[in-house]
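Quarterly update from the structural biology core.
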Amino acid sequence: MKRQLTTFFLLCIIGVTAQKFNKEIITENGLQFLVGQINLEGLQSQPYSNWFQNRYDNYQPDNAMVDLFKEKLGEYEIKLFLGTWCGDSKRESPKFIKILEAADFPMEQLEIIALDYRKGFYKTSPTGEEKGMNIIKVPTIIFFKNGKEVNRIVESPLETLEEDIAQIVFKKDYVPNYAY
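Predicted structure, tokenized:
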């Protein structure tokens, strides 16, 4: 009996702490957006697939550039902060994900966090993943190695996403837009 109670309590704790993916907010005026941790399923669901899928399908990564950083990129963990309501996020996020896939990046090393749009919650997530991360603009793509931030791409690349990723991965002098 004691073992069953312990198992029950552990399952309860796991259930309470487990992050729900693809939480959706619908405002009084009908604006829909995702908040918190999201995944590709969320981006490929309606109404987000209206902008995500088309931009993803139509983007052709620079495979020569991808081949340059492909091997080293797998050494990183990446956090992508975006707003499903944000034009810059809608433009850059589908391309970025397609580049990661072209590079055979282990997608379990990618965390996607959608930030809120509402007044009083602007650029926050329900579970606070943005806290201490100095998120000024979205999208913000943060590259981590061994648990430490290496660099980030903020709002848009300086050159192209592929070139900026290569600069970061090869530790070149790279200063993102809106330096933090």
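The chain has six helices and six strands.
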